[in-house]
Amino acid sequence: MGNANGRPAAGLSKTEMERMHRRFRRLAGGEDRLSLATLHEQPDLAGNAFVHRIFRLFDTDQDGFLTWEDFSAGIHQICGLSTEDDQSLFAFRLYDTDQSGRVSEKELADALKLSGSQLATEAQLQQIVSNTIGEHDRDRDGELSLLEFRAMLRTSQQDAENGVDF
């Protein structure tokens, strides 16, 4: 289960997981579960717009609470994102809020708003979303599949490396 460095496959040592468990219990007020509202009260997480989306992915039974098992499984999942495919699948799941297996224009716009695209007007944001979907939607269904989403990420990464900004 561990690797040559004595770390679990997800990259966290037993000591690190124990420390995370203590922090989880502290955040949960000694309870066995943690609410989204409690996470939003934490100063180091208050400004993170994706907290609720990550919470939703970790909350496996969708009851609005994270148990330690939910939380630790989610942390292991994030720490195990070693390949571009793993990372892009996780990002896709953050964007695909209705879990349809596709990212709609609304989901893409919502994610862009969360990521700080307040500099754009609503009309500009909609134009960016429409152009992005139009450029990467190979099957022309108006949404992005995982493969189309990955192509979008590669293009965005290449644009960033080449100094292209919109």
UniProtKB/TrEMBL annotation:
- Recall the GO molecular function terms of this protein's record: calcium ion binding
| Keyword Phosphoprotein on entry | no
Q: Where is the EF-hand domain?
A: 46-81, 83-118, 124-159
Q: Which UniProt keywords apply?
A: Calcium, Metal-binding, Repeat
Could you tell me which InterPro entries the record lists for this protein? EF-hand-dom_pair, EF_Hand_1_Ca_BS, EF_hand_dom
State which residue ranges cross the membrane: none
Q: Which top-level group of life is the source organism from?
A: Eukaryota
Q: What protein is this chain from? A: EF-hand domain-containing protein
